[in-house]
Specification:
Helix content is about 15%, strand content about 40%. The strands form five sheets. A six-stranded antiparallel beta barrel has the order 4-7-8-12-13-17. The radius of gyration is 29 Å and the shape is elongated. The chain is of the alpha+beta class and about 250 residues long. The protein contains two helices and 17 strands.
Length: about 250
């Protein structure tokens, strides 16, 4: 007699074979099969029902199979980042520079916006996720989409270095992301370090963070950098909702 994860088979006396391929195996199925086997055998030469130790062994084996299948199913379900919710937000860096979409180059730039130019500020749809594996940190996986578009921030390598990109993505495909798939490039770990203050670390390339340059630098592009990189800001104020702030006012 043999138990497997996707099949159950037994040799009956007098040349009668029974094989069941049914997934998932349940204890009720095993018990019913034992009863049928005894009835088919007419109670002769197959004393399964009268051998209590053998019956207990078979039932314990069936329970063990069920427990293994349950653990595999649970592990499989945990292997995916699952979308939990979404809210609108805007982001400013430590110099109160706002993110602005440069449609020509399809890049995000960090810029001071004053007066009537605040409408250039990018608003994001921030999707939160349940992590597949418990983490010691309180960082929450998130996906960042440009409001009113199907553009999402992603972290991929360019010439061997992780860089920030804007990619077209299907929102439905982002609802569940396998932790080993290339789609993890759309996820960032949002670690809150204060009231509305957060870092955004790539889930695909750990220890690489979304960052902006000092205002005095000519580099305006929002990009990735490693922690403690000189002249780069990796902490941001993430404001919930369509909050209008003066991006030109220094903190």
């Amino acid at each position: 007699m043999e138990f497997e994860s996707n099949s159950w088979s037994s040799k009956l006396p007098q040349g009668l074979d029974v094989e069941i391929s049914h997934h998932p195996i349940t204890l009720r199925c095993v018990a019913n099969l034992i009863i049928v086997m005894e009835r088919l055998n007419g109670g002769k030469g197959f004393a399964l029902g009268r051998d209590e130790s053998l019956l207990n062994f078979l039932l314990e084996s069936a329970v063990e199979v069920l427990e293994l299948e349950s653990e595999r199913t649970e592990a499989s379900s945990r292997a995916a980042f699952s979308s939990k919710g979404e809210y609108e937000c805007s982001v400013t860096d430590s110099e109160n520079k706002c993110w602005v979409l440069n449609e020509g180059s399809m890049e995000l730039h960090a810029m001071m916006l004053q007066g009537g130019s605040s409408y250039h500020k990018v608003h994001l749809n921030l999707s939160t996720y349940i992590t597949p594996v418990p983490s010691e940190t309180k960082a929450r996986p998130v996906a960042l989409g440009i409001k009113g578009s199907n553009l999402y921030l992603s972290c991929i390598t360019s010439e061997g270095t992780p860089t920030l990109h804007l990619e077209v993505a299907d929102k439905e495909q982002l609802k569940s992301i396998n932790h080993e798939s290339d789609m993890v490039r759309f996820l960032f770990y949002k670690q809150d370090t204060g009231v509305d203050i957060s870092t955004l670390e790539s889930a695909h390339y750990r220890n690489w963070f979304i960052s902006t340059a000092l205002q005095q630098d000519n580099t305006k592009m929002v990009n990735m950098c490693q922690s403690a990189t000189p002249n780069r800001f990796t902490t941001f104020t993430v404001q919930h909702g369509a909050v209008e702030s003066d991006c030109g006012k220094r903190p």
